[in-house]
Structure formats: structure tokens, C-alpha cells
Amino acid sequence: MALPWSWLAAAQRNATKDVRAKPLLRQTPVREVVRDLEGFGRLRGGPAPPLLVFVDELAHRAGGNRDTQLHRWIDEVAGRLRVNRQVVRGLCGPAQSRVEAGSPVYLVIQLEPDQAADDLVLLSAWLEEADGRERHFLRDDVRRTLPEVAKLVAELLPQVSETSGDDVDQLIVEFILPRRLIAEAVEEWKFDEDVPRPIGLQYPVVVRSWERLRNRGGAEGWRRKSRWLGANPHLSDASVVHTLPGPPGRPLAERARHQLFAALSRKDQVVVATLPGPPDNGTGGAADAFSVALGAGLPVIVWSREPMDAGTFDALVLTRLLDDGLGGLPRQVLSYRQDVMSAEPDADVLPSVGLLYDSALRVPKAFRHPTRLQPPQ
Length: 377
Fold this sequence. Notes:
The protein has three domains: 5-101, no CATH class; 104-204; 217-359, no CATH class. It has 14 helices and eleven strands. It has helices spanning 5-15, 30-38, 50-62, 64-81, 85-89, 92-101, 146-163, 210-214, 220-231, 254-265, 289-295, 310-321, 329-342, 365-368; strands at residues 105-113, 121-128, 134-144, 171-177, 190-191, 197-198, 205-209, 241-243, 272-275, 300-304, 353-357. The strands form three sheets. Strands 3-2-1-4-7 form a five-stranded mixed β-sheet. A four-stranded mixed β-sheet has the order 8-9-10-11, with helices on both faces. Strands 5-6 form a two-stranded antiparallel ribbon. The chain is elongated and about 75 Å long. The relative contact order is 0.10.
């Protein structure tokens, strides 16, 4: 039976998460995938063999008569191999949940600031799957300019699609940026030599704070608000949003900073901030409203790329973005960016937006165990 390649790729990923298997390419015949999985066998009293996990997920994706036929095959093979019946039955629940949830996969692009030159960064890129596994594509110590990084990202995207086996519909491009680059319009970087287009028209593009991931001491508010966000992905009530004071990018006086921090911190459900203009580059000394929102632990900040009235920005943008709930924001922003680009010349002008979507519940491995400097012995 012919099955979509993305189904095969997802099933192979989940079947081999605990073993070392060959990467699945688009040109890999199904028989080779099956032959590879057959080689892992089973451990007595252990989990089900990878081949059964693979076929079980395909059964749930196919549905109907195929579902029934494939589950009969699983039962027959499991009986022949003397796999515990409860272990086999236990495959169905997680497989169905994965199919229904369509767990996202993240292409993470990290720009680490170079300490010697403000206009240079160190680039790392890896794929992070729903189960936390990471597959690195690039990590070196070459200092690069932003145009050089953009060129490498454009070359990387087709490679990820070809070698990772990920369904394009589930891919989110996530930039980890230092404060001085947080307002960089990375979603407008171009890719695809044949039909050059912005990344943000093809994929959901979000940013995260490099400093907050790196310096997680005292981040209780961030973790608390992230847990609330994770537990309430379907909410779209205006009570979760706080409009930051303007004008954007202007440093706040000390008392104003303390007032804003208290207002953002006192309620766990305030997890989204809106800013009617771009944040500053964070190098001007006193903190602006964007920096206070980061410090208070807000996992989501939406800002306009062009300065505008706060009420107008919220009315034009926020209701659109929250239409599918908090958990759907990255994909709602993709849809919004496509609307902005495809609008008729005489349509109402919609501002382009930047989105920080930065949950403490998903911290890349590189940031979980930071290097600690030891004093000389």
C-alpha cells in the first residue's frame, strides 16, 4: 500500500528513538526501512520491537480497513515472538495521541554573540524533535556577519527537509537571539534559489532569548508562567495579555520599571505582552518595557515591526493571533504573515509582527547544563 512519506518518517522516528537507526531519506524504499527495523529484534520483558511500533503508528495514521489489517498483523507477529500482550496493547494509546497532536519539530538556529565584535555571531543549528532528541547540523567557532548567517540558513532549510524525515507542516523555525538582535526581522530572510521567498511565508518563525536561556538563575516567574501557558493552550481570553507602555524602545524610569514588573508578575495568567513597535537593542543602559517583560518571565511577546498606536495594534493584530488559543500562536502568526503579504493594495494596512515564543518547559540540552568556571587550583 502507498503511504505518504511524512507518515513513514514520523513512524520511523518514534520507532527508533531508543536505538541507533539509519536516517530516513525520501528515496529510501519502505522495504529497506522494514529490513532495518527487523534487525533490532526484541529484549525479553522489554519494550515492543521497533518494527511493531513502526507498523502500529502507520495503522493509526491509515485508519479504516488498513488499521484493522495492520493490527491483525501486529498481533500475529507479537504472538510468534512471544511479546507480552499488554506491551502490544500499550502501543495504541501513545500512537493515537501522537497522530492527533501532530507534535511540532523545531529547527533551532542559535546566534551566540561574539564578545569581541558587536556585528559578529557564532552560529549553531540543530533539529529538536517532540521527544527532546536533537540532531545537529552545524556548530562551529567561525565568527560570521548576519548576511553570512542568513545565507547559511537558506542553504540549511532544504537539507533539513531532505534528511530529517520531518513533515513540513509540523516544522517550526526557532531563532535563539541575543538581546541586541532580538528585533532582527529573521522571518524576512530569504531561502529557495528557484523561487526566493521569506522564511516566514513558508514556516512559523519565532524567536527566543539567548540571555534568558543561558542565565536561568532566579527564573521562577518564567517557569511558573510557562507552566500556566502549557496547561492552558486553548485559552484566548484578553486577561492573559498586558499591553506594554510606549513609546517602544524608550528606557523606563526606575519607578516605572518597578511598577511594570509588579503588574506583570502578580498574576500567573498574564503570559502575553504586546508592544506597538520594535524593542531596542538592549545596549542603551536602563531597561525598556520589553526587557522588563522578559525579566518578569513572560513567555510570549508580540510586537509591531513599525511604531504605531497601542490600541490600534491590539485591535488589528491581537484578536487575529489569539483566535486559535495560546498554543496555536506560532501557526497563527504564519497565517497572519501570509495575510499581510497577500493583501490587496486598497486593503487596510496590517503591521508586520515579531513573535517571541519562549517557554521554560522546553530548554535545549545545550542550556540545561551550562559550563561553570572553576577557580584555579
